[in-house]
Each structure stands twice: as C-alpha cells, then as structure tokens.
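So, can you check this one?
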Amino acid sequence: MERFISIIRNNTAFLLPVALFWVFGLLALLLWGKVPIQLCLNTAHSDIQDNFWLAVTAMGGTVFYICVFLAGSLFSYRYLVGAALSIGLAMGVTTLLKYAIDMPRPVELLDTLGLLHQADFVGGYELRRGWSFPSGHTTTAFCLFCTLAL
C-alpha cells in the first residue's frame, strides 16, 4: 500500500489534471446531458482542429501503441512485458464494460433521435459503429501515457 501511495504522490502532476477532467466532465453530463454537449462541441471546430484531433485519435490507436512499446522494448525487456500486460488487462476490462454498458456511438444516437442532420462531420474520416463507452482509443492512450509516466 505504501508503494501505491508513493506512486500517486510522485505522479500527482499527471494524475490531478486527469481527475479534474473527469470531475468536470461528469458535472457537465449531469447538468446538460450528452446530446446537447455533443451538438455544441460539434459546432465549435475548424479544419486545423479537425486535423489536430485526427492526429490525437491516432495516438490512441493500436499501431501507435505497438510502435512506441516495440521501440521501448529495445531498451528494456521488462518494459515490453509491462506494456503487454497493461494493454491486455486494460482492453479486456474495456471490452467487458462495453458489453455491460451498451452505449451507442454518437452518430448512432443522433441518427436515432433524428438530429444527425445538425452534426458536421470531418471529411475523409470513416465513422465507426458499435459501442462507444468506454472508449478503446482513450483506454489505449491512457494506458500508453500512464505506463510511460510511471
């Protein structure tokens, strides 16, 4: 337990902003709801932002994750084993939660509510279908950067 507390103390600069982001996000969802937030955020973008967020999304993808950890494994075998265990556990839990929560992706939700015509889409990006929560990209990115930070 002391080691766990030590890790949290030593990584407060990383973990505190993440915790604040989650708290503010939860408050926003409770106050306004998912659909109004999605439509509001969807209208506030530009081509530069679209390209930026496409790059950020790629950082949560499997190819980026594998490249970073293969590069890290050149320096330490333990790094590769830790990364493999980390992503395996995280994605296993994420997949189980997706089945348990069964939350549709925003495009499907907006289509079901008849609000899809109000949304603006990024050109050249194929929208995914299926479950949206918890996000596999977010899980992968968090797993990657948390492992790198620790």
Q: What stands out?
A: The CA atoms of residues 95 and 108 lie 19 Å apart. The radius of gyration is 18 Å. The mean pLDDT is 80.
